[in-house]
Input
Amino acid sequence: MDTKKNILENLLIYLRSLTPFSDESWALLQPALSEKVYKKNELLLQEGEICKSLFYINKGFCKSYYEINAVVKNTEFFFENEIATNISSFGSGKPSEFNMMACEELHAIVFDKEKLFKIAEQYIEVESLGRNCIRQIAYKQEEFSNLFKLYSAQERLEYLENKYPEMLQRIPLTQLASFLGVARETLSRIRKRRISQ
Output
């Protein structure tokens, strides 16, 4: 199992890839961070709750989804070395319209929103970090939103194969089909057709 020291080192490398971040700012950030392990199928966030956390994923992956008439609609997946959250609930303080659930055992560093904001008020690097984290999440959301507006199901699959191959390797076919907005059988057919080309 990962030691806390290793997880924090991974997080620091990730944060420094987003924005300049000094050792002093890193020390100041510590009170806002806690380590948590979620079991497979455990909820990180429940629909109707206000999202008060950012989750840095060190190991495992999770998804956001909602249910309509007992049908699960997967809206996003978050993998290692990414920050997961419900950006609109986190930003607005309104209840989440989605659930977020661990798809396998998930090791995360949880940022507490209240503590993070208090530290950010006093230290410009921490404030800049918060903005860059949110920008990164918003960019990915916009990327996937455009994917659905502009491309066919087959083109979406090709895009994921090229840009996010880990999604195809790790997400079960039924969940992937739900995410791409097609029936499982349709996705199987597209994949078979592509393999035989």
